[in-house]
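Review form for a predicted model. The reviewer records the input and the model, then writes brief findings.
Reviewer: anonymous (R2)
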Amino acid sequence: MASSAPRIPHHVAIVMDGNGRWATRRFLPRIAGHKQGVESLRRCVKACAERGVGVLTVFAFSSENWNRPVEEVSGLMELMVGALAREVPKLSADGVQLHFVGERAGLSPKMVNGLLEAEAATAHNTRLVLNVCFNYGGRWDIAQAAAKLAAKGEPITELNLDRAMALAHVPDPDLFIRTGGEQRLSNFLLWQSAYAELFFSDKLWPEFDEAALDEAIAAFQGRERRFGQTSAQVSSTAEA
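Model under review:
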């Protein structure tokens, strides 16, 4: 009997860490690292689609990142606007459906309109769902879901909260990757990552390539996902 193909994680989430350090080590301004990070994201989106990943969620700008130097935040905003203009047509042609997840109240009208237009232009695509978490925080997500339910007078249960989350349009991540050598969640997908397999890479995000993605996927394939069950129960279910 032929063995089944190795499991490909349906949903991959990535904390793209290390752009600033990559630039600093090369005596470049930090924004140069973020620009290189856009190149890495482009490469990663293509690689995920080719490998059969259905959903890719990336942490582009956290709600805490507003505390960074003003010039870096301003540069990141300009980079996002430029990336939208450049990348959306190509992403759409490649079958990528874009979602921007996060609080939009603090963003400029120009930025908000750009996000809405990008989502509308790619809404029909089905090859890969790309969630870009921008001005996002895991605690914010839980709080906004609870507030949404309270406003409707609905009971705050696990199921209702799950349906009110900002990422309710996709299943929870199977594989959670963080680059840059740090080993923490940093307020990213706190609710959704309850059963995600965690993988920490020492590579800085601008250095994260197809081989590094394959290493993370291989690590995922070598793990047994039990979801509270015993190994025997998992094996019995798989055989059935």
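Findings: The mean pLDDT is 89.
Further findings: The beta strands are 11-15, 55-62, 96-101, 128-136, 175-178, 197-200.
Recommendation: see findings above.
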